[in-house]
Amino acid sequence: MSEAHLWWQRGIVYQVYPRSFQDSDGDGVGDLPGVTSRLDYLRWLGVDALWISPFFPSPMADFGYDVSDYTGVHPMFGTLADFDALVAAAHARGLRVLLDFVPNHSSDQHPWFVASRASRESPYRDWYLWRDPAPGGGPPNNWRSNFGGPAWTLDEATGQYYYHAYLPQQPDLNWRNPAVRAAMLDAMRFWLDRGADGFRVDALRQLVKDEALRDNPPNPAWRPGQNPYDAQLHTYTTDLPEVLTIVEAMRDLLDRYGERVLIGELYLPIERLVAYYGPGGRGCHLPFNFHLILTPWDARRIAALIAAYEAALPPDGWPNWVLGNHDQHRLATRVGPAQARVAAMLLLTLRGTPTLYYGDELGMADVPIPPELVQDPWERRVPGLGLGRDPERTPMQWDAGPGAGFTAGAPWLPLADDYATVNVAAQGADPRSTLALYRRLIALRRAEPALAVGAYAPVPASGHVLAYTREAGGRRLLVALNLGGRAASLALAGRGRALLSTHLDREGERLEGALALRGDEGVVVALDA
Ligand code: NOJ
């Protein structure tokens, strides 16, 4: 493997949603000791790092993305000692640990906000965004919350509104205030000193808002029935130039610790996304690239996406790809179970760091949540549009036993109906399972520098076939993916040997002249020199 590449370039990131990964104490909610107990599984799977969604003290209005103490652990998840034990156990296994840092907003129960709200004269007033009502009364401008409704909430006692990009319980911090910057960088330092290998930074594009409070313009492309937040363009509330200066400050801090990684949560078009590598590469190591989630599952569209992304990357910008997370409907639900295997091969053979979402390696699908069991505040505030995120956050399916091996108690979200068959124990014993495919793909990526760090080149293909080569040190691999359900074929210049099929049944097959693909099949071929 190339020595010139860093661990987060060669490696694979695995996202753990801690509420749903492993419960160790029977309260139905996952916790840090639970994660520690499953590190051997992650080693066995072959990933290099885990990113753990927030486990900090929080009233849980947004399941931990409303932090009331940036340097603690919520008792439900464990203690600081449990965190230290997790990091030590992970590092002993060669696994890195990435934290989820939530800088845009705190909880309304955070002592900073409690003090800020107390009076207009509070020394903490300017830590958040307070404004007088509009001249005739009402919110200061037309800005909308990501989670429905206005982004301004009136505090009756002090007669001013505060801004929240998400829930009213998630007031936005004022990043123009140097004291806020210093306090938040201190919080990052706290975790770096405790051994964190980096951060996924939440809601990064939202950090700075227009000082003049200009109204956001309407979005002409929006249609009724779509997410109401997108009825406006987010011109004055997201992706302001000042955000990059904050990213640079975070990056400077991380760089003082050596090989740490800064990942930004950035839902942005490609041309804006790549700006977050920063001038001179001084920004995010990995601005999260969500475009495989957002692009229709169509070979030509995806070929065009890869070409556009590769072309837009700055010279030293390392690419990355993502197929799922705790905010997006499950991969197997979006593209169907058969194509989910093809998607796995795509993710794990593209150029750039892949991030896996827990359970996708089993082909876990969205679990329908009956209205009375809905937990997600977004679904509660904007019901019926399919925005709710509970379906993709259900417990990890470890085995066929009660609680799916996730909990000895009552799980906080329902288990999938199919957990008795779709689980780690069953799939681990089945050499053709989705889990077996993920393991084989990960092992192949590890064994083949061409896949981990090699050059990418598109290969012309038609219909539902997507094809490309990866090459390093004279070794050239062809990846051919059939995104359709019918048989297809790809012309092969020269000869080769099949290394892996998504069907896990044709390794070693000699190929010449053409590669025949079954429906929903992807194949990695080693091309003869
Ligand atoms: C993005 C997180 O991934 C999501 O789960 C959360 O609700 C919002 N940011 C607000 O923190």
Describe the structure.
It is built from 16 helices and 17 strands. By secondary structure, the chain is α/β, with parallel strands linked by helices. The protein has an eight-stranded parallel β-sheet. A six-stranded antiparallel β-sheet has the order 12-13-14-17-15-16. β15 and β16 (510-517) form a beta hairpin. The relative contact order is 0.10. The mean pLDDT is 97. Bound molecules: 1-deoxynojirimycin. 1-deoxynojirimycin is lined by residues 62, 65, 102, 166, 202-203, 265, 326-327. The site of 1-deoxynojirimycin (NOJ) has 9 residues, from loops.
What binds here, in terms of ligands, is:
1-deoxynojirimycin
Largest sheet entry: 8 strands, parallel
Cα(first) to Cα(last) distance is: 20 Å
Mean pLDDT comes to 97
CA gyration radius, whole angstroms: 23 Å
The fraction of residues in strands falls at 15-25%
Per DSSP, the total helix count is 16
What would you call the shape?
globular
Strand order of the largest sheet: 9-8-7-3-2-1-11-10
Helix vs. strand class: alpha/beta
Low-confidence stretches: none
Number of strands: 17
Fraction in helix: 25-40%
